[in-house]
Amino acid sequence: MIKNIKLILSKIKSSKTWYYFLLYIFIPIYNFFWEFLFNFHGKLYYYLWRSKKKESFDLKNNDKMIVENDPTFKKIANDLRSYIDDDFQKKEIIKFNKNLNLNIKVNKFEDYRADIFPLLPSKLKHKIMDFALMEKNLSTAANYLKVFPVIGKIYLFINFPVEKKKERGAMLWHKDDFGYKSLDLFLAINDIDEENGPLYFLKKKEPLGVFYKLTNVIVNALPGERNKINIKNFSKHFSAESIDALQGPAGNAVFVDSFTTYHRGGYCVSKNRIMLRICYQTPDSIDVQNKINENGFYFFQDLKKENTKDIFHKYLLFKKLNFFWKFIKLPWFLMKIYRVLHFKM
Ligand SMILES: [Fe+2]
Q1: Which of 80, 93, 140, 241 is the most exposed place for a label (fewest CB within 10 A)?
Q2: What is the fold, at CATH topology level, of the domain defined by 2-344?
Q3: Cut 0.85: pTM above it
Q4: Residue 77 Cα distances to 61, 253, 272, angstroms
Q5: Distance from Cα 321 to the centre of ligand 1, integer Å
Q6: Residue 34: how many CB atoms within 10 A of its CB?
Q7: CA 259 to centroid of ligand 1, rounded, Å
């Protein structure tokens, strides 16, 4: 009986009628609630921010955009690279491998990258923060999200080749299952080609966003590979022409919504890759719920709430979910909605 119901529901969820119901009826209504109710505070800040004209990158109604030849982006990439030289990389990779114990890690595939942001000198961390708080980047994120963002993540990853290992974990196709909308900025700190794991992503925006999921995911997956799709299966749905990549010289970057866009990357064949990642999210994302620190901004505790005078910066760095939404566990409830109602392809 239950099996039959499940089968019927699954059929409905992969029907054209369900697709159009989500697209034209459910999502517009849901989106209204997401912007004006769940993110009420962020919506007010968004209008306030937009009351003065500001420069931004034009995503042209897409949920991603590649940035090339931008002098500011190149400058920060060069500044970071001159500190993270070959010796620094070698030392950190040895240290990482020495401490690596996949049995105690939640993600069973995290043997290929180390976050070195915490190891940077304060001056460089400040430089990265200035870049993350740059008006043009913030406006790009706010214009895309339609609410003012918070900074959910800042990572500076060195990815490196691991002997006898193929694509795994986040190197397989997936969406980051943390919320409704986000805008991530990936900035290449060194040159990227096929040998050091470009970030691949679908060119076109999927109108259903997080309400669109492929079904041929890895079965009996371990944590870190759940809901991921291997490269061969993915190619049955999308041709090579429909896929774009972040590669080329250091300083190239991509803005991409990692919640709505299928993506994969970071598989290094013979060389290391260094990439800065700044995630603009909203307080309802489950990703930001555990990133709270009493002493300052979660990723860089030198930045204190009491010393942050700019109201927008204060929101970006310190805004958390309000008491009521936290009490009813809104972020997890919303994740359930996306998981239950999505269109299955
Ligand atoms: Fe991802």
Answers
A1: 241
A2: Jelly Rolls (2.60.120)
A3: yes
A4: 27, 10, 15
A5: 23
A6: 22
A7: 8
